Amino acid sequence: MKNFLKEHLFPVIMLILGACCAAFSIECFLIPNTILDGGVTGISMMINYACTVDLSLLIILINIPFFVLGFKALGKRFLLRGACSMAAFALFLELFKGVDTVTSSELLAVVYGGVLLGVGVGTVLRFGGCLDGTEIAAMLLSRKVSVSTGGIIFVINIFIYACAGLLFGWDRALLSLLTYFITFKIIDLVEEGMEQARAAMIITEHASELAAEIYSRLGRTCTFISAEGLVSGSQKTVLYCVITRVEINELKRIISQADVSAFVTITEVSEILGNHIKHGPKEQNAIDEAAQSN
């Protein structure tokens, strides 16, 4: 029962609270002051301003293809939590429509709206959910091009804010861009300083199985480092791999299923040089051969 509360019920509650916070920010701070969010939500807000289609419906419809891609890349657990957070987000957007605007001051709307949005989105990400499909698309695209996930998201949002400038005026675009920067920094704080990339070092006696599972489910290759325990004297292997922030929860789940005795550290990565992601059967064979040699 305790495990059920920790692994399933508590994360769902936090996903709902995060979605509630994000929806309140959008409906009570940003929309009344014509300030846009980035990503799919920003696109949906522009369409909503131009026509009478409900914002919640637009967000769900536009996000569906991205969540299908996320399911294929990250599995059923991600899809369920993503769907839960998205459904809660859409529901709260409808509920907060009737709430009075908190402030008509553009400066206060930018600052407090950005902070609340960052807290909401950061909470959802921390517990394995997702409110915006562009982050999923950026993560998958970064595996094929030499641009980071954060860089791709930034380019997408710059394009969105440029369109907002043409439609609503450049002052709206600049206010929206400022809100985006505030939101992004708050997300980092909520995620305990999590950047776009993390380096994981896993000390394990089951390196072959664990590396194969990480490659199969996340598309990430691992570097094998031979090691020896000081007390036990037994031979161990250290796996080193670089992952994105969206993949941290899935990596923890893979490790808990494959080797509960593994010792894991996850650290920040400030810069990545070179291609750290490989695909295809040749690379998988290389992983297997390296594992056998250990």
Structure description:
With 294 residues, the chain is α+β, with helices and mostly antiparallel strands. The chain folds into 2 domains: 2-190, no CATH class; 197-293, Alpha-Beta Plaits, CATH 3.30.70.120. It is 64% helix and 10% strand. It has 11 helices and 4 strands, in the order ααααααααβαββαβα. It has a 4-stranded antiparallel sheet, covered by helices on one side. A hairpin with a 6-residue loop joins strand 2 and strand 3 (235-244). The longest helix has 29 residues, at 2-30. It is elongated. The two termini are 40 Å apart. Residues 277-284 and 290-294 have low confidence and may be disordered.
Quick summary of this structure?
This protein has 294 residues and is α+β, with helices and mostly antiparallel strands.
- Main-sheet strand order equals 2-3-1-4
* Cα end-to-end separation: 40 Å
Q: Using the CA coordinates, give the radius of gyration.
A: 21 Å
* SS elements, strand count: 4
Our count of domains comes out at 2
Class from secondary-structure proportions:
alpha+beta
Low-confidence stretches: 277-284, 290-294
What profile does the largest beta sheet have?
4 strands, antiparallel
Round the mean pLDDT to the nearest integer and report it. Answer: 81
Beta percentage is 5-15%
Give the overall shape. elongated
Task: Please report the number of helical segments.
Answer: 11
Order of helices and strands: HHHHHHHHEHEEHEH
Share in helix: 55-70%
